[in-house]
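G., the chain you wanted modeled:
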Amino acid sequence: MGIERLPGAKKKLKATRSGRNQPFAVRLTPHGSKTHVRIGTMNAECSGISFAESANGMIFFDYEQLLARREIGDGTSLIRVSEEDASKLQLMIEQEITRHPRLAKRKARRKQTNVEAKISEHEVKELRKENQKMRRQINNDAGTLIELQLAGIVPLGEKPPFPFKHIQQMKYGCDWLSMDFSGSTLHLYFIESNLSRNGRKPTLNDNEMRLRKAILGRKVITHYTHHWVDQDGKIRWD
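Predicted structure as tokens:
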């Protein structure tokens, strides 16, 4: 596209331009002054400007690209630009940095800082993973302790308020179920085991609380189903 991007100056630029592939010097003229200060270089395609003795630049975009910008919610917006234009501007800025050792040193320091930041970020992630692993281990150890207590291997302390036999591990609603007959009456004891590390009574989740309310509110209907397969392979439900 080249100078087509600068329609107001297109005619004058064509008349004075000696080479189509040569870059443009960019100058600023203070208001009311005859002095023109060179501030940077614009590439031959007029797609980007690199500022002299600086690691900064500007890139060209048209009005449609500006209208199509997308806000990302933190006071900034994304504007779609050509990857080719972005790559060319990056090359121009890198050439500017190469020509000025001070900028190169600054870039090296920033690169080192970025490397150190990535290392620190990696270390934080590893520490978080280790912390999560330790938490899981603590929870596993707590669960193991409770299992050992219910198995009678580790002392319980106080006598439990349910018969300490025929205990089944549960996967839904609570942790354990103790079954006991008192004469011909079956008693079911639903047990939720938790470990408190802050001295306060552990709370129940929604499912555990729902089960507790149903049992204490006597809103329980007991069903018994016999599932078996006969000699012909037919499934039976009684």
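The chain has a mean pLDDT of 80.

Shout if anything looks off.
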